[in-house]
Specification:
Distance between the termini: 12 Å
Structural class: alpha/beta
Number of strands: 8
Number of helices: 13
Strand content: 5-15%
Helix content: 40-55%
Shape: globular
CATH architecture: Alpha-Beta Barrel
CATH topology: TIM Barrel
CATH superfamily: Metal-dependent hydrolases
Number of domains: 1
Order of helices and strands: EHHHEHEHEHHEHEHEHHEHH
C-alpha cells in the first residue's frame, strides 16, 4: 500500500479567512503570503489519493502559533480521520513555545486519536529546537507513547521559498542528539541531513530518525534520494508529498525515478511508514 506520510488539510472555511489568519498566525502568514494559496479539505485529499493510487495518508496542519488556530485545525483533522479511519491518520499541531500548555494540548489530541505531533516549524513558532529544556516536556510525552514528531527541515543553501526558515542540518542534528530515543521524522529530506549520515558519529546520532520526501521535486533532483539511500538507508525514507503543494502522482514519480531497487521502492512508498505508524496492522 502506498502511504503519504506528509500532507496538509485545512478546514474549508479557511479559504475565505486569509487576512484574518495572516494577522493572527505567523506560520500562516509565512506560508501563504498571498490570498488564494493552495488549500485542501478532506474531500479534495481523498480525490487526489484515489487518482494516484494512494491507500493511506497522514494529514497534518502546520506549526501554528495562535492558540486558537491550532485546536481548530486539529479538531477538523480528527473529524476527517474518524470519518475515514481506513484512509487517514492525523498528526496534531502544538507549539513547544507554549510550555506546559503544549504538553496538555498534545495529550488532548493524542488521547483523541492523533498518532503523532507535527509539523513543528521552529522559525515561525518561535522556539529553539536545540534547547533541551524547551523541547523536553513535549518529547517526554511522545516518548512515553512511542509516537513520532514531524519537524520542518531547511536547506542551508539553495533558493528561498515561503516558510523555508533556518532549521538546518546542524540544528536538527543537535535536536536528534538531545532526544536519541524519540522517533523523529524530518521533512523535506531533512534539509540534506541524511547525506551526512556517512560520517560514523552522525549516522549513530540519527539512528532513530526518518526523512520524508515532502516537496522534493521543488528541492532536489531524484538522485538526491539515491544518495540518501546510500548514506542513511532506504528504510529511513518515507514518501511525503506536501499535498496540496504538490500532487501525489508528481512526488511518487520523482521517487520512482531515483533508480531504487524494487524492495527499496516498496519500503519508501509505504512499508516504512506502515511499520513506523502501525498502519494496516
Amino acid at each position: 500500500m502506498i502511504i503519504d506520510a506528509h500532507c496538509h488539510l485545512l478546514p474549508p472555511g479557511f479559504a475565505g479567512r486569509h487576512f484574518e489568519l495572516a494577522a493572527r498566525d505567523a506560520t500562516y502568514a509565512a506560508l501563504f503570503p498571498d490570498a488564494g494559496g493552495r488549500l485542501a479539505d478532506v474531500d479534495a485529499l481523498l480525490r487526489g489519493m484515489d487518482a494516484a493510487g494512494v491507500g493511506h495518508a497522514v494529514a497534518m496542519g502546520f506549526g501554528w502559533v495562535d492558540v486558537g488556530v491550532a485546536p481548530e485545525v486539529n479538531a477538523y483533522l480528527l473529524r476527517a480521520a474518524q470519518g475515514h479511519p481506513e484512509r487517514l491518520s492525523v498528526f496534531a499541531s502544538v507549539n513547544p513555545a507554549w510550555g506546559l500548555d503544549a504538553v496538555e494540548q498534545a495529550r488532548r489530541w493524542l488521547d483523541a486519536g492523533a498518532v503523532g505531533i507535527g509539523e513543528l516549524q521552529a522559525d515561525t513558532q518561535g522556539f529553539d529546537i536545540t534547547d533541551r529544556d524547551v523541547m523536553s516536556p513535549l518529547m517526554a510525552e511522545l516518548l512515553a507513547r512511542n509516537l513520532p514528531v514531524t519537524v520542518h527541515a531547511s536547506e542551508p543553501v539553495g533558493h528561498l521559498y515561503p516558510g523555508k526558515g533556518a532549521t538546518t542540518p546542524e540544528r536538527l542534528l543537535a535536536f536528534a542528539r538531545n532526544f536519541p530515543d524519540n522517533r523523529i521524522i524530518l521533512a523535506h529530506l531533512g534539509g540534506g541531513l541524511p547525506f551526512y549520515a556517512a560520517m560514523p558519529e552522525v549516522g549513530a546520532a540519527l539512528a532513530n530518525v526518518w526523512y520524508d520526501t515532502a516537496a522534493l521535486p521543488f528541492l532536489y533532483r531524484p538522485d538526491a534520494i539515491r544518495a540518501a539511500i546510500a548514506t542513511a538507508g532506504a528504510e529511513r525514507i518515507l514518501l511525503g508529498t506536501d499535498y496540496p503543494l504538490l500532487s501525489h502522482r508528481r512526488v511518487i514519480r520523482h521517487v520512482e525515478s531515483a533508480g531504487a531497487s524494487a524492495d527499496e521502492l516498496a519500503a519508501m512508498l509505504g512499508g516504512n511508514a506502515a511499520g513506523l505508524l502501525g498502519i494496516g496492522q
